[in-house]
Structure formats: C-alpha cells, structure tokens
Design the sequence.
C-alpha cells in the first residue's frame, strides 16, 4: 500500500510539474479573431480606418484585421458577395443597387466612416474669384456615371442653377485611374478630383482647387462598412468589436491634429510626402468629412437617395430600416 501511495504521489507531482511547464510555455496572447475588410480604394479619406489599425484599437478588441484594397465599387461588392471578404468599405449607394437585384441576402450598412463627398473642383486657370457660373460653356472631366462622386458632383453643380448636361461639356469616358493624367495632359477646363491628387496639382501649378463638392452636397453616408445580412446574424459580436475599435479611432482623429494623424497613417501612403498627407487631412477635418461616430442616421440616408434620384440613378427608394442596421454602432459607442 505504501508503495502504491508513493507511486501515486510521484505521478501526481509529475503531472503538476508538466501542467506548470505547459502554462509557462503558453505565454502568448490569446489567438485573435480574424476579419477580412475589402476597401474600395486606398485613400487618405479613410484615415480613421488606418488609425484604428496602427494605434491597435482593433487589436484591443481581440481582432486581427486583414485589409485588402479592391480598387473599384464593382470589384469590392463582388468580393463581399462571393465571400472573398467579410466586410466591404464602399459607398452606401452600392447596397441600394444590390437590393434592386432582389438579393436573397441583402447587404447591410452597419458603420459609417465618412459623411461628405471627398472630391474637389479643380480649375486649370486660377481665377481672381470663383463663381459657379464660370463652369458654363466649359469642358468638365467628371467621374464614373452612377458612382457617388459623379452624382454628388452633379448635385453640387445643380444647386447653383447649372445644368451639367446642357450648360457644359461633360466628359465621362475616361477610366478613374486616368482622369488626373488626362487633365494634366491638357484635357478639360475643370476636373473633379480626390485628394491628394487635387492638392498635388495645386502644388505643381497644374490646377487650382476652387470648390469642395463635400461642402456642396451636405452630409451623406459617403463611405460605410457593410456586410451581408447572413454574416451579421452569425457574427454580430465580431462586428460589435470591430465597430468599437473604429469608434475609438474616430474619437482619436477628432481630438488630434492633422500633423499627428498624418504621421500615424503615413505607412499606407509611402509615395506621398507626409506634409502633403497633413494638408489633405486638415482639409477633410475642416469640412467635417470624417464621421464623428459610426451611426448612419436617417437624414443622411434620405439625402443620399435624393442625390441618386436627381442623377437618375435611383432604382427604387429604399426605406432606411431595410438596408441600415444601427444596433451594432449604438452598442459599440456605449
């Protein structure tokens, strides 16, 4: 009996030592939950997203964010619908287009990133003063038909009593990637550009920023995080963690200078001087382009549909509650 007890004690001691050894070896942090994000383009306009990654706000929520740039609304939505991504960052109008196709698994907007248009009106010649009437009779290099930049641009022009179809020559047959090059080569009197291209042209004397389409179009859900309804049902807790990390970044961006923000997001724009990034961030902050929280409100949703309708691109008006889920954002900001 004594021999059995002694053997049992030795076995217990060995098991205890082994368990302590295993605990000591397992000193790494718990495995993070992966979430795949497809962004429509790489843009300083999306600064809060990069801040959330670089400042570790997503990691604090236990998430491993895999960010992919899909370069175009169609490609971004294809990635989402084909399960190539869990979440898409793209314009809210895309959810309306998908809904019009009577999808059995609709795409739902759950967190807002930007709340204004992000483009600027750039003139070839710097005027002593700018008046929207100066666009009449001019040649205008616009964005892709049916895309939010073009629709917001036309909306802003119409506000000043100008018919973009009859009062000027609108060029829309140039690929997005080549619009800036076309203008630099001498095509057009005016062009609608995103940053940092607009500010870069101004620095180089190629063109001059004379107006902001973001200021003209008002608040809209210009760029939002969205996902399939089925993904929300199965991964709501993951999306809540993601949105909480995003909200931390939104607050950080709001409470820090353009210089500080530029320094944080600079790794995402290796070919852009940090001073230019700072200029662009300051321009977007000054016109309140970055959403202060992830909640997409109904007024913004209705403004979006008004802009789409005036552009002749609204398939059918969609109720706010059908394609917008604010429960995740509301819980995240508590």
Sequence:
């Amino acid at each position: 009996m004594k021999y059995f007890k002694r053997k049992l004690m030795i076995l217990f001691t060995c098991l205890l030592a082994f368990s302590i050894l295993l605990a000591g070896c397992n000193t790494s942090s718990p495995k993070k939950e992966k979430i795949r994000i497809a962004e429509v383009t790489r843009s300083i306009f999306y600064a809060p997203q990069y801040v959330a990654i670089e400042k570790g706000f997503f990691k604090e929520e236990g998430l491993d964010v895999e960010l992919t740039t899909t370069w175009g609304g169609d490609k971004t939505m294809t990635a989402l619908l084909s399960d190539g991504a869990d979440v898409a960052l793209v314009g809210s109008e895309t959810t309306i287009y998908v809904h019009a196709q009577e999808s059995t698994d609709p795409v739902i907007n759950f967190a807002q990133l930007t709340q204004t248009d992000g483009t600027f009106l750039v003139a070839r010649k710097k005027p002593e003063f700018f008046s929207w009437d100066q666009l009449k009779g001019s040649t205008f290099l616009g964005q892709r038909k049916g895309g939010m930049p073009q629709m917001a641009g036309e909306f802003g022009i119409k506000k000043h009593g100008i018919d973009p179809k009859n009062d000027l020559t609108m060029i829309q047959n140039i690929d997005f990637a080549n619009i800036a090059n076309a203008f630099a080569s001498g095509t057009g009197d005016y062009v609608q550009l995103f940053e940092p291209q607009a500010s870069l042209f101004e620095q180089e004397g190629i063109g001059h920023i004379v107006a902001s389409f973001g200021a003209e179009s008002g608040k809209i859900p210009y760029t939002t995080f969205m996902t399939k309804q089925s993904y929300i049902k199965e991964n709501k807790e993951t999306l809540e963690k993601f949105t909480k990390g995003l909200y931390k970044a939104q607050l950080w961006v709001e409470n820090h200078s353009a210089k500080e923000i530029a320094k944080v997001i600079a790794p995402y724009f290796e070919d852009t001087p940090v001073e230019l990034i700072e200029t662009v961030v300051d321009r977007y902050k000054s016109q309140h382009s970055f959403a202060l929280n992830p909640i997409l409100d109904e007024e913004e949703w209705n403004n979006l549909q008004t802009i789409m309708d005036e552009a002749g691109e609204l398939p059918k008006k969609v109720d706010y509650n059908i394609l917008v889920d604010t429960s995740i954002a509301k819980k995240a900001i508590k």
Q: What stands out?
A: The beta strands are 33-39, 63-69, 87-90, 107-114, 119-123, 139-141, 169-171, 190-194, 208-212, 223-228. The chain has two domains: 33-116+220-332, 119-217.
